[in-house]
Amino acid sequence: MSGIEPPVTAGRNIGLSPKSSEQGNVLYAAAWMMGALVSFAAMAIAGREISRELDTFQLMFFRSIIGLIIVVSIGSFLPGGLRSFKTDRLKLHTVRNLFHFVGQFCWFYAITLISLAEVFALEFTTPIWVAIVAPLVLKESMSKGRAFAVVIGFIGVLIVLRPGLTEFGVGHMAMLIGAVGFATSMLTTKKLSATESPLTILFWMAVIQAPMGLVGSLSHFVIPGLWTSLWLLVVGICGFTAHYCITQSFRWADATVVAPMDFFRLPLIAFVGMSFYSEALDPFVFIGGAVILTGNYLNIRYERKRIALAGAAPVLDPAASVNGVDHPPR
Q: Mean pLDDT, to the nearest integer, of 254-275?
């Protein structure tokens, strides 16, 4: 799949009607999105298996080291080599990675405490938090459209958590904090993307987060066994492939088409949790997840309408939009 490039000119669609071409693009987008869904599911399984031997700080340390090896290996073949990772924005990279470390740490920690389906459903709130934090960080206005999407999203959260009816534990709190961490890191990524390439952002993510994970695990450092080491490789590789597949998916289809596909992460991980860990299927998690995703979808539609009214070019890749549903690189 990595050799496929999206059609960028009409000439590349010779012999296809506009309708069939559009349908073909959606199929390619769906195929890439499926790669992302499988990658996220594999990461969740790996994270839980790794927790049997290592704590979350050590997981984060080894994940960063593996990620650094991958990025440096790719960068060494690019024009300019490793010099392309030079940056003048180290302070902003540091701020971004402080928040991303919190988000990723909480994600892996929550996986060990609550069901996988609950983790993924609460992670869907990340774009909702982006809409809340953006006015503070980027000085953007909280419009009625964004506010409505936020309200819908939090209704979904209440459906998932059902406070007063079910136990609200440390795992739920951790994942909500993680979603806020992801949201803030997304906003700083937006600022960085004006001057930094995605590979440069990933390079500094690994460089900055590896020492953070190491410091947190020094008092109880354990050399992982063979089986755990294999799971660590899964985390490192799938973190890269998940982000890459999502990016490719948005190149083939609009955000309003791709965003609903993301919901399939929930039934997929619920099936994984049921099959591998005997986790019960909770219909409220599905209902709440669907409501949260609806809030995200309405937010995307609102942003597209706002951009169209402003006369700007439509945004196909939400990585370039503050309120997109793109996931932070894991």
A: 82
pTM of the shown model: 0.81
With H, G, I as helix, E, B as strand and everything else as coil, classify residue 162: coil
DSSP 196: S
Question: Would you state the pLDDT for residue 39?
Answer: 92
- As a residue count, the chain comes to 330
pLDDT per residue as tens digits for the range 215-256: 999 988 899 999 999 999 999 999 888 878 887 887 787 766
Q: 196-226: string of b/e by CB count within 10 Å (b at 16+)?
A: bebebbbbbbbbbbbebbbebbeeeeeebee
Contact indicator for 267, 286 with CB cutoff of 8 Å: yes
- Residue 80 structure tokens: 């300019």
Q: Which residue, among 37, 28, 25, has the nearest Cα to 2 in the 3D structure?
A: 28
Q: CB within 8 A of 280, min separation 6: which ones? A: 115, 274
Question: Quick check: 317 pLDDT over 50?
Answer: no
Q: Are 110 and 119 in contact (CB under 8 A)?
A: yes
The backbone torsions φ and ψ at residue 28, rounded to the nearest 5 degrees and listed phi first, read -65, -40
- The per-residue pLDDT for 227 is 95
pLDDT, average across residues 155-184: 87
Assess whether pLDDT exceeds 70 at residue 88.
Answer: yes
Which phi and psi angles does 269 have, rounded to 5°? -70, -30
Residues 6+ apart with CB under 8 A from 120: 40, 44, 265, 266, 269, 289
Q: Residue for token digits 């690019």? A: 78
Specify which residues 166 forms β-bridges with. 163
Q: What is the mean pLDDT of residues 73-85?
A: 85
Q: What is the pLDDT of residue 281?
A: 86
DSSP state letters, 256-282: HHHHHHGGGHHHHHHHHHHHHH-----
- For 124, the 3-state DSSP assignment is coil
Label residue 298 exposed, middle or buried (CB < 10 Å: 0-12, 13-18, 19+): middle
Nearest Cα to Cα of residue 29 among 329, 300, 247, 315: 247
